[in-house]
Amino acid sequence: MKRRLKLKKVGHLGTLDPAACGVLVLLCGRATKLTNQLHAPTKVYRTLVIWGQETDTLDCEGKVVATSDVIPTPEQIATALSTMTGEIEIEVPKFSAVHIQGKRAYELARQGIDFVPPKKTVTISRFEMLPLSQCASDLTAIGETLPIPSNASYFEIECQTGTYIRSLAKLLAERVGTVATAGLIMRTRVGDFKIEQAKTLDTIKFEDLQSMEEFL
Q1: Which DSSP string do the residues of 18-47 spell out, in sequence order?
Q2: For residues 47 and 82, is the Cβ–Cβ distance under 8 A?
Q3: Domain residues for 89?
Q4: Which of 179, 150, 195, 146 is nearest to 16 (CA)?
Q5: Continuous segment of H or E residues that includes residue 120
Q6: Number of structural domains, the chain?
Q7: Got the DSSP string for 154-212?
Q8: Is there a catalytic annotation at residue 56?
Q9: pLDDT tens, residue by residue, 95-121
Q10: pTM above 0.70, yes or no
Q11: In terms of Cα–Cα distance, which of 38, 10, 13, 11 is closest to 23?
């Protein structure tokens, strides 16, 4: 962003996992001073959960570490989803930026060092299943292509900031008696910033930036 628009300072309101896509709120120039004031308490994600395999990264970029022939029915998924809102304890992914023994967890994981990942409590406001066809429509809308396997389900999640969607996919799989991997993670909203308003990095122009005074 700095290089493209020749800006001196660019900040953000929360990064995305390397394998994720979607809304990333950027603050440019003087607006970087608003980072603390613009802290977004809630975010909305859509994720494609692929049943029957789990990877070490909990997404499709990792190595498969567990498999299962169990593919949950819609009824089983609905029952499990009824337990997935409110305060939920999740396990932080081993491949994450959380600090463990003074190092990033992903650094230890990449070195093959075994460790017990920490757990954290997050608040989930909404966790619901969407038609699988919605995933194809969403991908088309953002100009992406991704194979959608038949052994997958599509979900929308509204949660507090700091929630690991990969961990939610793992927890949901455990509650339906199988394993799973997050094949797609797309953030569609950060606070009041929606994906429909977003620009792609390769098309954004300086004129697209909203002035700090106008926004405030």
Answers
A1: TT-EE---EEEGGGGGGTTTT--SEEEEEE
A2: no
A3: 41-196
A4: 195
A5: strand 119-130
A6: 1
A7: EEEEEEETT--HHHHHHHHHHHTTS-EEEEEEEEEEETTEEGGG---TTT--GGGSPPH
A8: no
A9: 888 888 788 888 888 888 888 888 999
A10: yes
A11: 13
Whether 175 is in a domain gets the answer yes
140-to-6, 9, 146, 148, 191 alpha-carbon distances in Å: 30, 32, 10, 12, 24
> In this structure, are residues 73 and 58 in contact, taking their beta carbons and an 8 Å threshold?
no
Instruction: List the catalytic residue out of 17, 59, 138, 202.
Output: 17
Q: Which of 214, 215, 212 is nearest to 33 (CA)?
A: 212
b/e string for 97-121 if b means 16 or more Cβ within 10 A? eeebeeeebbebbeeeeeeebeeee
Q: Is residue 209 domain-resident?
A: no
* Beta bridge partners of residue 104, listed in sequence order: 99
Q: Specify the CATH number for the domain of residue 95.
A: 3.30.2350.10
| Contact predicate 170/92, CB 8 Å | no
Specify the pLDDT at position 68.
Answer: 96
**3 falls within a domain:** no
Q: pLDDT digits over 127-176, tens only?
A: 999 999 999 999 888 877 778 899 999 999 999 988 999 999 999 999 99
Residue 35 lies in a domain: no
* pLDDT at residue 14 in the model: 82
Secondary structure of residue 7 in the 3-state scheme: coil
